[in-house]
């Protein structure tokens, strides 16, 4: 038996509205700890993770852990039948293929029951490990939504740069480019309006704008948004769901554009230290050809290194290259040398053989 009762029914409507444009269908996992969801978009670029803890509900009962497959679009349509201030109750029995939604008005004058069919969805539950990020930005969710909306009219990508001064959102498109910088501000009287930047090393990452704009659908859930970034890792955009849970969006960076802009991005402290060590210890000229052979492209690498060791090349070729015919060439060269240099030594040996054979024949007679 599964049953939950949420007094703030409008909260569930906002959660579904925040994920319906990203996910078509998903499994809702029910357990004694709470109500959760994890699903990826159709292109497998973004992932959404929802958690509503059991203690956040007025009533929560789950006798055993199970999953309910639902169409997110159909669920959003169903929740439109509820008024903003309605109390929402979900019920599902073991072994059934339906779930019942009950909408109650605060005055109990109106009660609605709607039954929805469940789906059999085959999906893998991904384990998301907890990670330490290079930079964490906390800012007003409404401001983040305005930034994404403004920049989306200029370009298709957004580059997020985090430094000690603050966080910069920039884009570039056919009509031009734009940059919006939010400086760290912790002196405000209202904590929800503060911008806080926690940075270990500078981070510069580029993401698809359309996904960032979709994430801002959760703006109504929380006054603050947390953006966690690390190099070569998906960004995490997190919104708190009142005091009962959270919704997190994961988005992979655009690798191709990051590689193209590597030369223009500011160096991290680790990269600067590596470059300083390389410049402080110049590589000897004799070692350069070996480095080229080991690390450069395979085709043409040996051809560039061979002219520098002319005496070694013939031996290397005879020992390691063409196996068929190598021995024949060596034998032919030695025979030619014997015939030209020691002709006199060869002929006596040839003349003695008939004499020796004649002597043996006389003894036999």
UniProtKB/TrEMBL annotation:
InterPro entries: DNA_clamp_sf, Pr_cel_nuc_antig, Pr_cel_nuc_antig_C, Pr_cel_nuc_antig_CS, Pr_cel_nuc_antig_N. Transmembrane segments: none annotated. GO terms for cellular component: PCNA complex. It is found in: Nucleus. Residues 1-124 form the Proliferating cell nuclear antigen PCNA N-terminal domain. Residues 127-254 form the Proliferating cell nuclear antigen PCNA C-terminal domain. PROSITE patterns: PCNA_1, PCNA_2. GO terms for biological process: leading strand elongation; mismatch repair; regulation of DNA replication; translesion synthesis. Residues 259-283, 297-335 are annotated as: Disordered. Keywords: DNA replication, DNA-binding, Nucleus. GO terms for molecular function: DNA binding; DNA polymerase processivity factor activity. It comes from the Eukaryota. Belongs to the PCNA family. This protein is an auxiliary protein of DNA polymerase delta and is involved in the control of eukaryotic DNA replication by increasing the polymerase's processivity during elongation of the leading strand. HAMAP family: DNApol_clamp_arch. This is DNA sliding clamp PCNA.
């Amino acid at each position: 038996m599964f049953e939950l009762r949420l007094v703030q029914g409008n909260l569930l409507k906002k959660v579904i509205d925040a994920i319906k444009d990203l996910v078509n269908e998903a499994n809702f996992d029910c357990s004694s700890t709470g109500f959760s969801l994890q699903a990826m978009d159709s292109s497998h670029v973004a992932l959404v993770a929802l958690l509503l803890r059991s203690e956040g509900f007025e009533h929560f009962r789950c006798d055993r852990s199970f999953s309910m497959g639902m169409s997110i679009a159909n669920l959003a349509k169903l929740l439109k039948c509820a008024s903003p201030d309605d109390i929402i109750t979900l019920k599902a029995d073991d072994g059934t293929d339906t779930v019942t939604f009950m909408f109650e008005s605060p005055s109990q004058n109106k009660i609605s029951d709607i039954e929805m069919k469940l789906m059999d969805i085959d999906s893998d539950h991904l384990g998301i490990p907890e990670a330490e990020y290079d930079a964490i930005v906390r800012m007003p969710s409404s401001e983040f939504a305005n930034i994404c909306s403004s920049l989306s009219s200029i370009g298709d990508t957004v580059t997020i740069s985090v430094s000690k001064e603050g966080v910069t959102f920039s884009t570039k498109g056919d009509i031009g480019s734009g940059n919006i910088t939010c400086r760290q501000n912790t002196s405000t009287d209202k904590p929800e309006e503060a911008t806080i930047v926690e940075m270990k090393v500078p981070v510069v990452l580029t993401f698809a704008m359309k996904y960032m704009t979709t994430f801002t659908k959760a703006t109504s859930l929380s006054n603050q948004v947390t953006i966690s970034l690390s190099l070569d890792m998906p960004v995490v955009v997190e919104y708190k769901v009142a005091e009962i849970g959270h919704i997190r969006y994961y988005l992979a960076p655009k690798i191709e554009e990051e590689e193209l802009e590597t030369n223009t991005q500011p160096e991290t402290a680790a990269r600067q230290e590596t470059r300083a060590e390389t410049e402080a210890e110049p590589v000897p000229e004799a070692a350069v050809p070996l480095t080229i052979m080991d690390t450069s492209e395979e085709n043409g690498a040996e051809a560039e290194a061979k002219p520098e060791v002319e005496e070694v090349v013939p031996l290397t070729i005879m020992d390691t290259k063409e196996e068929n015919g190598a021995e024949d060439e060596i034998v032919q060269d030695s025979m030619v040398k014997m015939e030209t240099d020691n002709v006199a030594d060869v002929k006596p040996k040839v003349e003695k053989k008939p004499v020796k054979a004649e002597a043996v024949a006389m003894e036999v007679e």
